[in-house]
Amino acid sequence: MKPYKDKEPLVIENHIIGGIPFMPSPNSDWRPEGTSPDLIVVHGISLPPGVLGGEEIIDLFMNRLDWDAHTYFQTIKGLRVSAHVLIRRDGTVMQFVPFDQRAWHAGESSWNGREDCNDFAIGIELEGADDILYRDEQYESLVGVCRALREAYGIQDIARHSDIAPGRKTDPGDAFDWYRLKKMLA
Ligand SMILES: [Zn+2]
Question: Which pLDDT tens digit goes with each residue over 87-102?
Fold first, then answer.
């Protein structure tokens, strides 16, 4: 697993990014018939919150997190979630759900008057927290993934989890430089 350094474009084939680890999460299902993804949702996650570098995010997405390992995990016991893509602190990109399927990342949400964003969104989790600055390598990888998604699906629309679930979700938080991303994608 080597970090993505934005030297070579990422290529999506059969709804999976080539050359990166793919671990199929059971927390996925089909999009409504005829729906193709047209929104990218950026998230931030760490488990327990604020603790970086472990395998717990992956374990959560794969339904193998040990709920007894930490008091915080007790508060989310039984939670079944996933994202299409996780970008770790060093910029490593991992995929868990093919893009033509629904990952379970948005929860109760709406965007431009459309409810349940999981139906039409691609969820990208950045390993981090609302108040820990995200790393340059993560921005580079995020831009690389967004470009590949544009190429494959023509997706232009991008939002933060806090934009589609205001009042309920705060991630990726103030630590994420939204304007920097927009500038890099322009
Ligand atoms: Zn989120």
Answer: 999 999 999 999 999 9
Q: Which helix (H) or strand (E) holds 19?
A: none
Question: Token digits for 73?
Answer: 């995990």
Cα–Cα distance between 85 and 173 in angstroms, integer?
18
CA of 45 to the centre of ligand 1 (A): 7
Q: How far is CA 151 from the centre of its chain?
A: 18
Stretch (H or E) spanning 131: none
- Rounded Cα distance between 133 and 125, Å, is 14
- Centroid of ligand 1 to alpha carbon of 83 (angstroms): 9
Residues in Cβ contact with 156 at an 8 Å cutoff, skipping those fewer than 6 apart: 150
Distance from the alpha carbon of residue 162 to the mean position of ligand 1, in angstroms: 7
The model's pTM is 0.96
Q: What pLDDT is attached to residue 170?
A: 98
- Among 13, 108, 115, 125, the one annotated catalytic: 125
| Rounded Cα gap, residues 72 and 129, in angstroms | 15
